[in-house]
Amino acid sequence: MLRPDLVSRPCRLLRVIAPSVLALAVALMSHPAAGDGPARGSVSGTLTTVSGEPVPGADVRFEPPAPATPRTSQDGSFLVSGLLPGPYRVSVELPGYASLVESVTVEAGGTARLALRLRPALSAIDATEVTASYTIGREDPGPGIALSRSEMLHLPHFGDDAVRALPFLPGVAANDTSAQFSVRGGLPRDTRFLLDGVEIVEPYHLKDYQGVFSIIDPRHLADLQLLPGGCTSEYGSGLAGVLDMTTVTPTGRPQAEVGISLTGVWAGGSGTFAGGRGDWFASIRRGYLDQVLKLVGSENETEESRSGPGPRYWDAHGKASYELKPGHRTSVQYLTSDDSLESEEHELEDGFPEYHLFDTSYGSSFAWLRDDALVGEAAFVSTTASVGRVRRDRIARGSGYGFDVEIRDVRRLDVLGLRQDWSFQPSTAHLPKWGFDVRRLRADYDYRNGAGDALGAPQAAFAGRLSGTEYAAYVSDRFRIGDRLTAEGGVRWDRQSLTDEAHLSPRLAIVHAGPHDLTVRASWGIYFQSQRPNELQVEDGESRLWGAERAEHRILGLEKGFTTARGRYRLRLDAYERLLSDLRPRWENVLDPGTLYPETSSDRILFAPSSARARGLELLLSRHGDGTLDWRLSYTLARVTDRIDGRDVPRSTDQTHAATLDVSWRPSPRWTLSAVWVFHSGWPTTEVHGRVVSDMEGGTRIEPVLGELNGRRLPAYHRLDLRASRSFSTRRLGTVELFIDVQNAYDRDNLSGYQVDDRRFRLDDTEGVVYTPKELYWLGIVPSLGIAWRF
After folding, report:
1. What is the mean pLDDT of residues 43-58?
2. Based on C-alpha coordinates, what's the Rg of the chain?
3. Could you tell me the pTM of the whole model?
4. What domains, with CATH codes, occur in the chain?
5. Which among 134, 132, 40, 37 has a CA at the least distance from the CA of 88?
6. C-alpha 87: how far from its chain's center?
7. How far apart are CA 697 and CA 699, in angstroms?
8. pLDDT single digits (tens) 460-512
9. Pick from 379, 373, 287, 283: which is nearest to 331 by CA?
10. Do 672 and 665 contact (CB within 8 A), yes or no?
11. Torsion (CA) 450, 339, 175, 708 in degrees, nearest 10
12. pLDDT given at position 3
C-alpha cells in the first residue's frame, strides 16, 4: 500500500529552490540595513516595587537582546545604550514577585524613559517551585527555566511551532513529521494541554498525518511549563504529565506583526486600552502546504493523475482582558482552527495501479471567560467558564494490490466546563489551596469501515452518542518547615459518570532550598486517567469505555546553580519511576505508523498490557552567558516497558539513550545563530517473516507473519538543525526579522520503519521464504525561511 508522506513532497521542492533562495536570503541578511548606522538609542529606567521601594541587583532583559544585560543599581536605576531604533520587549523575573513585561520604543539618537514596578507574588511560598518542571519562555535563567523566550523563538523548529521545541528537553520523544510527543515513555494521550487553565483537546493540525503542527501561535505565549509527572493536586488526569501554557499580557502602545514563511503566513496585533487597564491580542495563521504540493507534483514518475487542493489549515487566537479594579481582572479568550484535505490520485506503484481518495475536514473551537480576583488581603480566587467543540469528518477510499478500503468517519465532541480555584494565605509560611472542576462532555459517532471481504462486509461500524459528566475537587496545603524546607500535601477526588467510577489521589511534594543555590526535590503521588468519550477506538471495534488507568509517580531530583567569570550555569539531575496499572488496551501500527489507513493496515496490533513501568535518569546542564552565548546539554537514560503475557515489551518510543546539545550565539544585537544536535537510540520495531500456507484451491501462497513484538530495534537516530535570524530596525519601518532554518543539515538517513505487503515475499531455490522489506525514512534536509515585520 502506498504510504503518502505530507512533508516529503514539499521537501523535494525546497531542495530544488533552496540554493537560490538561501543565497538571496543570505544576501539580504548580510546587507546593512538603513538603521544599522551610528544613530542608535538608549533606555533609561527605574525598577521599584508598587510601594515605591527601589529594587537593586535585578537583571532587566530586552527582546530583541540588548548589547549587554543591564542590572539595576542600589537606587533601582538602569541604563542600556547602543540599541537599534524600534520596539523592544522588556522583562524582569525576580523570586517573590510576579513576572513583569513592558514594551518600549527606541528612537534613533534618543533616550526612552521607562518606569518598571514589580508586584509581589501572593507570597514567597506561593512562588516556590515544589514540582520539578521544565519551563520554556521566561527570560530568567533561574530554577526550572529550560529555554528562555528568545531561545524558544530562535532555536530551530519546523513550521514556527513552539511545541516542536519540547523534544529538546530531557525525557521528551517525538518523530520528525509530528508535533505530538511522548513524556518519559508515556503515550501522547497521557499529557494534557492547558492554555490559561483550560484544557485544549486534540490541539494539532493535519491529524491525517499524526498532527504535523500544533494550533497554538508561539508569539502569544509568555511561557510553556512542562510538568513531567509529580504534579500537585490541582492538576487532573494526565498519567505522564501536563503542558501548562500561559499567554502574554501586552503592555504599551498597539503593535502589529505580519509574516510569511515557506509553510504559511500570519498576521496579528496587540496593545492596551482604557489607559492601560485593558489589554488585547489577536492573530490568524494560514498554512499553504496545498499550494506547495501543487508546485511539487508527484514523487512517482509513473503516476498518471492527481487532483484536489491538498491539505489546508488555519487557526486564530485572541484575548482581551480588563482590570475592573486593583487586584480584579476579567478576560475573555478564544482559539479556533480548521483543517481540510481533498486529494484524489491514480498512480502506479511497483507496476500495479492504485487509487486513493481523501476528503477530510477537522475543526476545533474553544472560548472561555476567566475572572481573577484578590479577596481581602490574603485570598485569591480564579473562576473559569469554558465551552469547546472538536469535530471530524473523514472519507478515505483506496484500492490496489492486496487492499480495498472505504472509510466514513464522522465525530463530534462538545465540552462545557466550570472551574474555580482558591488559595488563602493565613501566614507567610502557610498556603492552603482548594477548588473544583465540572465538565460536561458529549461525543457523537458515525463510523463505518467498508474494507473487508469481496462482498464488502464492514470490518467495523458504530453509530451512537456518549455523554457524561466529570467531577473533580481537590484540597492541598503548602507550608514551610524551618527556613529551607517547603512541603505540599494534598488529595484529589475525581468522578466519571460514564463509567460510574470515583477515585482518590493523594500527593506529596517536598523541596529543600539549601545553601549555595542547591535545591533538592522529592515527590510522590497517585494519578488516574479516565477514558474520555471522544477517545473510543471505534475504528478497531470498541463500543464501550474502559475504566480509569492508574499511575504511581516517584521522583527525586536536585538542582545546583553556580556562577563563574564566563557565565551562569545550572545543573539538574532527576531520577523517576512511574508504575502503571489498570491499563486499557490500545491499537498501534508497529511497522508504519504514518499510513493514512491505520485501521486497515496489516501491521496494526492490539496491545493489552496488564501493567507498565517507566524509569529513567535525566541530566541537564545549561550555561547562560552575558547575552552572547548560551548552551544546554541534556542526557537521558531511560526504559519503558509494557507487561504483556508475562513478558516486558518495550514501548514503540522507548529510547535507552537520548542526548541533545543546543547552542545559541548572538554575535551582535541583530544576529542570532542557533544549532541543535539530537541523538537517541533506535526505537523498537517488529520483525516480519513469511510462511507458505495452502489456499482453498489446493495451491500455496506466502503469508506474512509478525515476529516477537518490538523485539528488534531500528538503527540509532541523530540529526543537526540550524537556524540564523537577522533583525533590521528603522524609524519608519519598525522591526523586520528574517530567518533561515535547516532541519537535518547533514542529510542523515534515519530509518523510520518498514512497508510490508505480499509483493515483497518470494521463494528461494530451497522453497524457503525470502522477505525484502521496503525501508521507510524520516525527513532528509528540510530548508525553510521566513520574514516577519513588526510595526
Report:
1. 82
2. 27
3. 0.82
4. 8-31+127-790 (2.40.170.20), 34-118 (2.60.40.1120)
5. 40
6. 28
7. 6
8. 788 999 999 999 999 999 888 888 898 999 999 999 999 999 999 999 999 99
9. 373
10. yes
11. -10
12. 42
